[in-house]
From TrEMBL:
Protein name in UniProt: Glycosyl transferase
Domain Glycosyltransferase subfamily 4-like N-terminal as annotated: residue spans: 18-119
Organism: Mesorhizobium wenxiniae
SUPFAM superfamilies hit by this protein: UDP-Glycosyltransferase/glycogen phosphorylase (SSF53756)
Keyword Transit peptide among UniProt keywords: no
Length: 364
């Protein structure tokens, strides 16, 4: 199958540090190639892939100080995709909504995975207008705010089995990994650590939009708590040690999280997750098996005290059963195949109508 993967240009594929969507695009692309598919990746020029790379900008936009706005770069990428669209059996988009008007004429050959939140007030009207675009959710909870649209599947994220090594024993610290923003709950993580007396290590990205939140709300709490260490952004190699050595990953989110990639990264290491019951958390974490799901700060504090009761080997087995890249790729290939079946039926109907029309013409 000839497949185009269209990635955001904000980060490289895979990203050097933070970047969940681009990381998933990379894992999926490499597994599709490994399984023998002919894959073309539209991404930033500093991406690394075994697929054919179409560089749509020199480097990831977040790393380019000359780029002020990312829309022009993405529009130019879409023009390249449009010009080559007929080369592919399936075009798989990971860029949110920008491509919707461009692909209208060949929407039946497209898949769009929505990686973000869908509860924002302006989105319902837009998705209602483009209700013919085939969409994939990354959890069932992600779908709830949407009007009736063309959902064709839900595919949970997956990781390569050997990406993060299982660690049967942990050091005595809690981990927070992700992004410094109010919805991710770094202040809550610090409070949990303070109340349990356990060290907390924070490895996180700080976007420009969250700089004031960091300076005014989070950094003072870090400085006041001697058991809290802020590390900053980390790469894939550092992530293995950071998560693998943690007693637990804290995931104290306060928003409708569509998936939570870091939770399955922790599971791959055998590290259990203590997570607030928001968004897709109950779909991803098996309560009492791969972690503990809580509803309050007090319950989170109690969960830290009970976390040693979670079997780390069983956490790893849960990852292998549910969240490998092989399973993710298999799910997407099934969706690609379902699109091909629909196209084949449509072409068959068109051919039948054309044949009947020709016979009628001949008979007259």
């Amino acid at each position: 199958m000839k497949i185009a993967q269209i990635a955001p240009l904000t980060e490289a594929v895979p990203p050097r540090t933070y970047g969940g969507t681009e990381r998933i695009v990379s894992y999926l692309t490499e597994e599709l190639v490994r399984q023998g598919h002919d894959v073309t990746l539209f991404a930033s020029g500093d991406s690394r892939t075994s697929a054919e790379l179409v560089p749509c900008c020199d480097i990831a936009l977040r790393l380019n100080p000359r780029v002020r706005h990312d829309i022009p770069q993405h529009v130019m990428m879409l023009e390249q995709v449009r010009r080559r669209a007929d080369e592919f059996d399936v075009l798989h988009f990971h860029i949110d909504i920008l491509h919707f008007p461009v692909v209208r004429d060949f929407a039946e050959r497209t898949v769009t995975t929505l990686h973000g939140r869908l509860d924002l007030p302006d989105l319902a009207q837009l998705y209602a207008m483009f209700d013919d675009i085939p969409l994939v959710s990354i959890s069932y909870d992600q779908r709830w705010p949407m009007p009736p649209v063309h959902w064709i599947g839900t595919v949970y994220h997956g990781l390569p089995r050997d990406l993060l090594r299982f660690r049967p024993k942990a050091s005595g610290y809690l981990a927070f990994l992700g992004r410094i923003s109010p919805e991710k709950g770094p202040e809550t993580a610090i409070e949990i650590a303070a109340r349990t007396g356990m060290p907390l290590k924070i490895a996180a990205k700080i976007d420009k939009v969250d700089q004031s939140y960091w300076k005014e709300r989070v950094e003072p709490k870090v400085l006041r708590n001697s058991n809290v260490e802020f590390i900053g952004e980390i790469d894939e190699r550092q992530k293995a040690d950071f998560l693998g050595n943690a007693a637990a990953l804290l995931f104290p989110i306060d928003w409708p999280e569509p998936f939570g990639l870091v939770t399955i990264e922790a599971m791959a290491c055998g590290t259990p997750v203590i997570a607030f019951r928001r968004g897709a958390v109950p779909e991803v974490i098996d309560d009492g098996v791969s972690g503990l799901i809580v509803d309050t700060l007090d319950a989170a504090v109690d969960a830290v005290r009970r976390i040693n009761g979670i079997d780390r080997a069983r956490v790893r087995r849960t990852f292998e059963e549910r969240f490998t890249v092989e399973r993710m790729c298999r799910d997407y290939v099934a969706i690609y195949g379902s699109l091909s079946d629909v196209i084949a039926k449509a072409l068959g109907s068109q051919n039948k109508r054309a044949k009947n029309a020709a016979m009628m013409t001949m008979s007259t």
